[in-house]
Task: inverse folding
């Protein structure tokens, strides 16, 4: 069935349910001799919401259908626009053309790295699709592959018969710089509907856990968010990224093969050969020694890139180095350029400084440290002649170490046009911390802001989030209660709002599981108790609301954990002993919570009734903890880390309504059983079964709406950088809060409104006042209190559980308090990339400008890095941290 058929089917079902619900409410009112007019008046305001929901749903489905309507070739054309814009900007930031492109040259690599030349010609001639290029343009021997600068495009497209190229070079020899130039040239020469060259940094690929196709699809969807799954959760739908890969409309440029740990390189190269068979162009870069080790492993079968020609980058020539240093200093006759004469006289000799300044990386570091920027005075900078001192720099390694040490302070010295908010020492300390964290903790070169949350222990994040949600629950209930009381003329509004512990416990459970629900419930209960004690002059409120916080936080935590859309992924792990341990703990905790709740209402009960009630109430809560609490706890314990959200849409998800009904019924039955016991012992009227049913329906509707919210792809022609992705995630957070809050609040208002019509004039629930335990009336202000309080707080909790911005905010403030990183970390990273040249940007993540700079900053210097004893090591990227994930 097509998209239009599914839309019509869901639309008809939605209309039938809405009309049936309204008709059912009218029939119930007529059957029990209730005022039909009032029932209709109560339901009429929901008509606008029903139309709005349907209109939004239909618009989203139509937009999704339009996105699916794009052909794969059109998607490739739009991706090419994004790739070109991304790398044009990155070339400017990396100053690849400032003052002019370095004349990087290459020669044919040793013949053992490539396929025999006659064999490559035969491979290209016998491809089923024919030759990729004109055979007349093919090189007749490997020596004809030599070239310089922009000729790399000519070599790849025309001289290599198979269009499969291996680019080898030493550390800092300019491999990535040359690949960027090749990529931009290929994009410029690309024909409409052709393959799009995309640069992939191999350092983040784990060939032991992911195939190359899966990893490339994941990177494409992350860096170009419009290539993600258009309709996640709908079977049979393929994301744009996978479609491009399947149609071979992505030309992979794989950079940094040497950054894969040694023991995985053979498997990685074998996976590349399997995923990119002969006939599909590819470019692979690596350091010479690391690739050579793959060809001759100590044990195992040698592996090489099939059908590939190989070139090796050459060291820079002495005249080119001299001309470049003089030009960057202002020109041949400037005073700043004259300072380089002692160094230039040594170029081409065996002097340590001459042997060190033969790569583009060292040349970039040198110009940054010693050459003045426009508006700077060269006299205030160190003199290049110091590099000629054989005592301080006895070998090239000493020169390179000195340049790495001096680079960050030089990058952060006062800039005439771009003043810096951080001192060189602060910047260096922060960058060293990040380098150690990435290398020794995460084991990757990718600095993704949403992964920094791993610095915080999960319990700390859970408690901090729960405390905030508890405070928000108290503010919402108190403020809304006060406002509605003043509008309705009920006097002191502090006593009319719903218990904040109920709202806080539910919200904490959604965001942090049962533990978060208890902390949020206790926070809200204590705050509410202090407020009520001050407003009423009765200190007993503090005890009552604390007990409420414990009990309602426990129950709300169970429901929240079951209701959260993040808890329905994965399978259970662990043995039966662990499960039984959780069962016993939650049974005991539930018993204590139930008993505490009972004793908070024990005023006016006899000793026997109090003891029996506490025992019965504790048993009910204990059974709830043992039967469903352990399950909810294990579900919430394996929640994945929240990923950034770009945009949102709503789509039908029947699982959400099922989970909502189940979780709502769980807490509804628990409280119904508790209050039935209270009614039996005290004679005070209890909730009716209709109240339980309305509570379950409210949860079913609210959670169903929440589950229907999905991630929405962005524009296909947009490459999302880290800062833009953070801003989009923050915007999505606010929209989710508003949308989910409105949905939850409307659901509870609707269900409580129906209940008010059915039970109008009857007592609603228990309360405790100056004269002991009594009854209150369910009135429109109470309904409004509950709807708004649930909407504000639960909407916030759901947005927190589905977005990464909140956890990033907690983490960066935590690290700022411990003086590890600047408080405005986003601005610091953007400045390090755009102004200082310390970081580079690859899609949605930052990386250090060069892997050697990363290793140098991560070395043992300065203060210690993050405490890795409590952090997981998901995958080892570097040789010194080869620890497999358990």
Result:
């Amino acid at each position: 069935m097509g998209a239009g058929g599914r839309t019509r089917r869901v639309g008809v079902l939605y209309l039938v349910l809405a009309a049936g619900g309204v008709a059912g409410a009218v029939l119930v009112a007529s059957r029990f001799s209730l005022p039909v007019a009032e029932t209709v008046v109560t339901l009429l305001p929901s008509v606008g919401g029903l139309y709005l929901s349907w209109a939004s749903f239909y618009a989203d489905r139509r937009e999704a259908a339009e996105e699916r309507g794009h052909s794969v070739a059109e998607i490739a054309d739009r991706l090419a626009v994004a790739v070109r814009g991304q790398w044009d900007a990155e070339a400017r930031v990396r100053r690849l053309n400032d003052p002019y492109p370095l004349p990087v040259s290459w020669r044919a690599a040793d013949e053992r790295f490539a396929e025999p030349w006659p064999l490559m010609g035969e491979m290209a001639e016998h491809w089923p699709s024919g030759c990729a290029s004109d055979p007349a343009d093919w090189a007749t021997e490997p020596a004809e592959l030599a070239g310089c600068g922009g000729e790399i495009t000519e070599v790849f497209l025309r001289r290599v018969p198979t269009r499969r190229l291996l680019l080898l070079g030493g550390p800092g020899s300019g491999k990535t710089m040359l690949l960027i130039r090749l990529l931009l040239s290929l994009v410029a020469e690309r024909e409409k509907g052709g393959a799009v060259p995309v640069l992939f940094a191999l350092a983040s690929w784990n060939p032991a856990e992911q195939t190359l196709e899966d990893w490339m699809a994941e990177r494409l969807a992350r860096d170009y968010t419009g290539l993600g799954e258009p309709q996640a959760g709908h079977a049979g739908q393929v994301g744009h990224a996978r479609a491009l890969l399947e149609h071979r409309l992505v030309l992979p440029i794989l950079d940094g093969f040497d950054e894969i740990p040694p023991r995985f390189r053979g498997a990685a190269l074998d996976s590349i050969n399997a995923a990119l068979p002969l006939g599909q162009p590819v470019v692979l870069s690596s350091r010479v020694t690391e690739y050579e080790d793959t060809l001759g492993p100590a044990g195992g079968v040698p592996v090489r890139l099939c059908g590939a020609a190989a070139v090796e980058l050459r060291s820079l020539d002495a005249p080119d180095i001299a001309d470049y240093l003089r030009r960057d200093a202002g020109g041949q006759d400037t005073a700043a350029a004259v300072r380089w004469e002692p160094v230039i006289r040594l170029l081409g000799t065996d002097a340590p400084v001459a042997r060190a300044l033969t790569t583009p990386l060292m040349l970039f570091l040198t110009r940054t440290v010693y050459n003045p920027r426009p508006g700077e005075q060269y006299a205030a900078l160190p003199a290049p002649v110091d590099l000629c001192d054989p005592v301080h720099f006895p070998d090239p390694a000493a020169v390179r170490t000195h340049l790495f040490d001096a680079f960050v302070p030089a990058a952060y010295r006062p800039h005439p046009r771009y003043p810096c908010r951080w001192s060189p020492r602060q910047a260096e300390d922060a960058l060293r911390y990040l380098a150690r964290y990435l290398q020794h903790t995460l084991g990757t070169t990718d600095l993704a802001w949403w992964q920094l949350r791993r610095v915080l222990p999960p319990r700390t994040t859970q408690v901090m989030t729960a405390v905030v949600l508890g405070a928000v629950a108290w503010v919402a209930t108190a403020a809304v209660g006060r406002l509605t009381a003043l509008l309705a003329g009920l006097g002191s509004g502090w006593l009319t709002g719903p218990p904040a512990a109920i709202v806080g416990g539910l919200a904490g459970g959604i965001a942090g599981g049962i533990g978060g629900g208890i902390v949020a419930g206790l926070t809200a209960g204590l705050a509410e108790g202090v407020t009520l004690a001050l407003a009423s002059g009765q200190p007993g409120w503090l005890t009552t609301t604390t007990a409420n916080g414990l009990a309602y936080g426990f129950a709300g935590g169970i429901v929240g954990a079951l209701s959260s859309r993040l808890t329905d992924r994965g399978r259970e792990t662990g043995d039966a002993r662990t499960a039984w341990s959780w069962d016993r703990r939650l049974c005991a905790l539930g018993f204590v919570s139930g008993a505490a709740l009972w004793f908070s209402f024990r005023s006016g009960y006899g000793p026997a009734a109090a003891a029996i009630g506490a025992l019965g109430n504790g048993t009910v809560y204990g059974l709830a903890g043992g039967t469903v609490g352990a399950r909810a706890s294990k579900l919430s314990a394996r929640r994945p880390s929240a990923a950034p959200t770009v945009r949102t849409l709503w789509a039908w998800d029947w699982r959400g309504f099922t989970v909502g009904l189940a979780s709502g019924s769980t807490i509804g039955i628990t409280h119904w059983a508790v209050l039935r016991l209270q009614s039996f012992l005290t004679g005070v009227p209890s909730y009716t079964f209709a109240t339980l049913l309305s509570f379950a329906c409210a949860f079913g509707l609210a959670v169903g709406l929440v589950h229907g919210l999905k991630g929405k792809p962005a524009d296909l022609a947009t490459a999302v950088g880290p800062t833009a992705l953070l801003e989009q995630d923050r915007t999505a957070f606010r929209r989710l809060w508003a949308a989910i809050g409105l949905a939850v609040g409307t659901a509870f208002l609707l269900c409580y409104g129906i209940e008010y019509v059915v039970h109008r004039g009857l007592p609603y629930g228990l309360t405790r006042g100056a004269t002991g335990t009594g009854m209150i009336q369910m009135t429109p202000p109470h309904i409004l209190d509950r709807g708004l309080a649930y909407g504000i707080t639960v909407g916030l909790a759901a947005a927190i559980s589905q977005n990464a911005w909140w956890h990033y905010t907690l983490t960066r403030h935590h690290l700022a308090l411990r003086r590890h990183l600047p408080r405005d970390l986003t601005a610091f990273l953007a400045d390090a990339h755009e102004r200082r040249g310390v970081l580079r940007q690859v899609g949605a993540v930052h990386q250090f400008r060069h892997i050697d700079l990363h290793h140098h900053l991560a070395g043992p210097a300065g203060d210690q890095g993050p405490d890795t004893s409590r952090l997981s090591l998901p995958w080892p990227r570097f040789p010194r941290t080869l620890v497999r994930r358990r």
Q: What stands out?
A: Residues 500-536 form the longest helix (37 residues). The chain is about 60% helix and 5% strand. The chain has a mean pLDDT of 76. The first strand starts at residue 105 and ends at 108.
